[in-house]
Design goal:
The protein is mainly alpha-helical and 458 residues long. It has 3 domains: 91 residues, Fumarase/aspartase (N-terminal domain) (Fumarase C, Chain B, domain 1), CATH 1.10.275.10; 210 residues, Fumarase/aspartase (Central domain) (Fumarase C, Chain A, domain 2), CATH 1.20.200.10; 99 residues, Ribonucleotide Reductase Protein R1, domain 1 (Orthogonal Bundle). Strand 1 and strand 2 form a beta hairpin. The longest helix is centred in the first third of the chain and has 37 residues. Bound molecules: arginine. The site of arginine has 10 residues, from helix 7.
């Protein structure tokens, strides 16, 4: 029998039932549904709908269901429409007819949104923890490779030398912003919709603020019609997930390139790479390509949910049931990609020699020469032009800038003197980038110290 059986004279068609049921997906709200139901029973007792004794029996019944460690298979075998009806039926099985009082004044419309918000809250806390773990691995690597110089790129052309540490710190910053966005999403969703009924509120004397507190929400929502219609919190969480997955996919792409035969800056260990069925020489970074690839599914989750909600009339519509598919899948993917990124950081080595060689190539010290000339009072635009000419000549002669003799350089400007060569080394180039947030060793040390402070704060 369905929860809503009385009004119907015929049994549901099997195909309709399969199509309509959501248990296969929302069984994951098992714990949240029980916790919210316990709070609801307490508030029903406050409103004298349940006696204190009845409330205790219901609460114990619900706690027993929670303790009985139901497996996914057991729940799915039950033939219930969704997790709410499953919990209610289990309760009735356990404590008998008294269980039928629990749904007084409540609708599955306020119930589902409450469960989802509770689920999002606990996931956000886990995700924050996971991001922090990834950040601390980045800091470990950054501390280890403070002196490893390799080329920084723009347009995938060597631009200026940077250090591996500096690269790690860039991703640390992105993840820090992801954490801020997550905390913001958490703050926005921390309002309980329970007690909104189907859409218009409930006729029973329910203290919704107290109910919210019982479930650890900051307080309750303001408008019942909005409360059962609102899914902004899912969109916000999926947006944060999408942005963070974009970060992880860029992280993956950088590492794929650094590991390529062309760059050869790093090499992944065998335990996280895969081979080719045909090409025996291959050792592929599939693990990172999958992070990059799975980002698309998370974007899909966000877009699918945005589209799902667009143009829906107030208040509840069954379309909502579909959002859980997107939410659960996207959050699972994001969480596992955060975990896998740590695994990647634990299983690679750096080819130091190639890194330094590559940093020396590509005329990445050209701007140092421009700055040198500017220091000697040559106007910037003129200096830029002159260095451009020197680079052109160097390309023709297949040389680095620093391989020209002083005399050859002086042909371009008479102010150039012997000290120019000190400016053209990798070390000098790094030292000079001493603006706040720059790549100079002391700025990187400063950033590492700050990052450690951030991670040690709760
Ligand atoms: N399974 C439903 C969902 O996930 C629960 C709410 C059902 N409400 C209703 N009025 N049919 O959205």
């Amino acid at each position: 029998m369905n929860l809503w059986g009385g009004r119907f004279q015929e049994k549901s068609h099997k195909k309709f039932k399969d199509f309509n049921n959501s248990l296969k997906i929302d069984f994951r709200l098992f714990k949240e549904d029980i916790l919210a139901s316990i709070a609801w029973s307490q508030i029903l007792s406050d409103a004298s709908i349940l006696t204190t004794k009845e409330q205790k029996i219901i609460e114990n019944g619900l706690k027993n269901i929670l303790k009985n460690s139901f497996t996914k298979e057991k729940i799915l075998n039950s033939n219930s429409e969704d997790i709410h009806s499953w919990v209610e039926k289990e309760l009735i099985k356990k404590i008998g007819v008294l269980g039928k009082k629990l749904h007084t004044g409540r609708s599955r419309n306020d119930q589902i949104s409450t469960d989802l918000k509770l689920w999002c809250k606990s996931k956000i806390l886990q995700l924050l923890c996971q991001i922090k773990k990834l950040q601390s691995h980045l800091i470990k690597i950054a501390t280890k490779y403070q002196n490893t110089v390799f080329p920084g790129y723009t347009h995938l052309q060597r631009a200026q030398p940077i250090t591996f540490s500096f690269w790690c710190l860039a991703y640390f910053e992105m993840l820090e912003r992801d954490k801020k966005r997550l905390n913001n999403a958490l703050e926005n969703l921390d309002l309980s919709p329970l007690g909104s009924g189907a859409l218009a509120g409930t006729s029973w004397e329910i203290d919704r603020k107290k109910l919210a507190k019982l479930m650890n929400f900051r307080t309750c929502t303001n408008n019942a019609l909005d409360s059962v219609s609102d899914r902004d919190y899912i969109l916000e969480l999926l947006s944060v997930a999408s942005i963070s997955m974009m970060h992880l996919s860029r992280f993956a792409e950088d590492l794929i390139f650094y590991n390529s035969n062309e760059a050869n800056f790093i090499e992944f260990f065998d335990n996280i790479t895969s081979g080719s069925s045909l090409l025996p020489q291959k050792k592929n970074p599939d693990i990172l390509e999958l992070i990059r690839g799975r980002c698309s599914t998370v974007y899909g989750g966000l877009f699918s949910t945005l589209t799902l909600l667009k143009g829906l009339p107030l208040s509840y519509n069954k379309d909502f049931q579909e959002e859980k598919r997107n939410l659960f899948l996207s959050i699972d993917i994001w969480k596992s990609c955060l975990e896998i990124s740590i695994l990647v950081l634990k299983n690679f080595k750096i080819n130091f020699e190639n890194c330094t060689k590559a940093a020396q190539k590509g005329y990445s010290n050209s701007t140092e020469l421009v700055d040198y000339l500017v220091n000697k009072k040559v106007p910037f635009r003129e200096a830029h032009y002159l260095v451009g000419r020197i680079v052109l000549k160097a390309i023709k002669k297949k040389k680095f800038i620093e391989q020209f003799t002083l005399k050859e350089l002086q042909k371009y400007h008479s102010c150039i003197s012997q000290d120019v060569f000190e400016f053209l080394t990798l070390e000098a180039s790094l030292q000079k980038k001493n603006s706040f947030g720059g790549v100079s060793p002391s700025r990187v040390q400063e950033a590492l110290n700050n990052a450690k402070i951030i991670l040690s704060n709760k």
